[in-house]
Amino acid sequence: QFLMANKLDTAMWISRLFTVYCSALFVLPLLGLHEAASFYQRALLANALTSALRLHQRLPHFQLSRAFLAQALLEDSCHYLLYSLIFVNSYPVTMSIFPVLLFSLLHAATYTKKVLDARSSNSLPFLRNLLEKLNANQQNILKFIACNEIFLMPATVFMLFSGQGSLLQPFIYYRFLTLRYSSRRNPYCRTLFTELRIVVEHLIMKPSCPVFVRRLCLSGISFISRLAPTVA
């Protein structure tokens, strides 16, 4: 009754579980490397479906207007719909599947707990314990996802020069990264950029750091800071 009363949430729960399943079989290619590539695409397509459903839930009345598009781009679900479309037809990159896997796992775990609560307050204690441990590590998981989002930017450039990526991919991914940096719901990308800057500045200001390395890093920090969008 609980699942039928919340059909859209249940559909997203199932698609997230399927995303976790496909992502796991890509990261751990138990069925062979050829099959792993197909699971990579399935995971991203399932994530695109989940993101589209979530976006529909947040903005149920679609309008073909600039205002609606601007509002949609503020939603994290729109960000990851774009993310899935960026990588679904690209060369499989293990780093790119982790945000999809971990976000799906976190959201699926939250809804699984609701399903267990609807069934019985004491049902499946072992599973409940696993879900509690996952929830306790949520902050570290979100930081790890943000780290993946950031370091995928140079990875897309490297893929371009190695012949495994398209010319447009780095530019589209840069747009995705600016959306993540400006996210209202998830500040971890912005926070991690700040933390990385502090760590790098601390290291290069040590007397043992060569002058040319310090200048190179400061130039890089200045360049990245200019590219960062203004956050309200």
UniProtKB/TrEMBL annotation:
GO CC term (a single one): endoplasmic reticulum
Keywords: Membrane, Transmembrane, Transmembrane helix
Subcellular location field: Membrane
Gene: Tmem33
Listed Pfam families: TMEM33_Pom33
Descriptive protein name: TMM33 protein
Superkingdom: Eukaryota
Chief location of this protein within or outside the cell: membrane
Phylogenetic lineage: Eukaryota, Metazoa, Chordata, Craniata, Vertebrata
Single GO biological process annotation from the record: membrane organization
Protein source organism: Cnemophilus loriae (Loria's bird-of-paradise)
Family label: Belongs to the PER33/POM33 family.
